[in-house]
Amino acid sequence: MKQSSYFNLFTLLAPATHYKQRIEMNEGGNRVKKGFTLIELLIVLSIIGILAVTGINSYLASLQRSKDARRKVDIGSIQKALESYYYDYNQYPASTASTDLCADAAHCYLKTIPVDPGGGIYYYLRGNISGTNQSFQLYSKLDRSDDTGIGSNQAGYSANCGGTCKYGVSSTNTTP
Q1: pLDDT tens digits, residue range 60-114?
Q2: Which residues constitute the domain of residue 120?
Q3: How would you class 170 by CB atoms within 10 Å of its CB: exposed for 0-12, middle for 13-18, buried for 19 or more?
Q4: Is the pTM higher than 0.85?
Q5: Angle CA(71)–CA(76)–CA(81) in degrees, nearest 5?
Q6: Cα dist. 74→44, 79, 83, 170 in Å?
């Protein structure tokens, strides 16, 4: 004998403290329990929520690490291009613009200037040792403060960096 749909709906919405379950009769006349209690549903939803939050946080952390790694690679490639430029002209360029690092086909040190993956910029400072432009410093902000490659605080360049830059490279005759 089937029970009314009103009773089935009531048992599903009943308070979980009563531990009521939807009960139906099978073909043999035996009672069969179907459905979940409210507590069971809340526990499952809580576990799913905890796993979702943990997964999202892990994803965001790995996204920040990948952007920081990309910044370091970009700065390294700019540094190599600047050193090649210095080798040819015995001074560093006034900027890292494409006109300075790729003036013509014979002297193209970097075809495209890398762009910060987070939308920021890389900070380039050409040093003027005795008026000869013999040094440079190149900085970037990193998303993660716990990055092991940060090294020393780049406070000397913080005014142009809009805050303290966390990663920097320089020519061999100066420090970042």
Answers
A1: 999 999 999 999 999 999 999 888 888 888 888 887 666 677 767 677 888 888 8
A2: 67-170
A3: middle
A4: no
A5: 125
A6: 45, 9, 14, 14
Burial of 171 (0-12, 13-18, 19+ CB in 10 A): buried
User: How many angstroms separate the CA atoms of 129 and 150, rounded?
Assistant: 26
User: Is there a domain that residue 117 lies in?
Assistant: yes
Token couple for 159: 């005014």
* Count of domains for the chain: 2
For residue 154 the two structure tokens come to: 């780049």
Q: Cβ–Cβ contacts within 10 Å for residue 101, how many?
A: 21
The answer as to whether 50 is a domain residue is no
As given in the structure block, the two tokens for residue 111 are 């075809």
Return the structure tokens found at 129: 């040792």
| Claim to verify: residue 87 and residue 153 sit in the same structural domain | yes
d(CA 104, CA 173): 28
Residue ranges of the alpha helices (H) in the chain? 5-13, 38-89, 98-101, 158-161
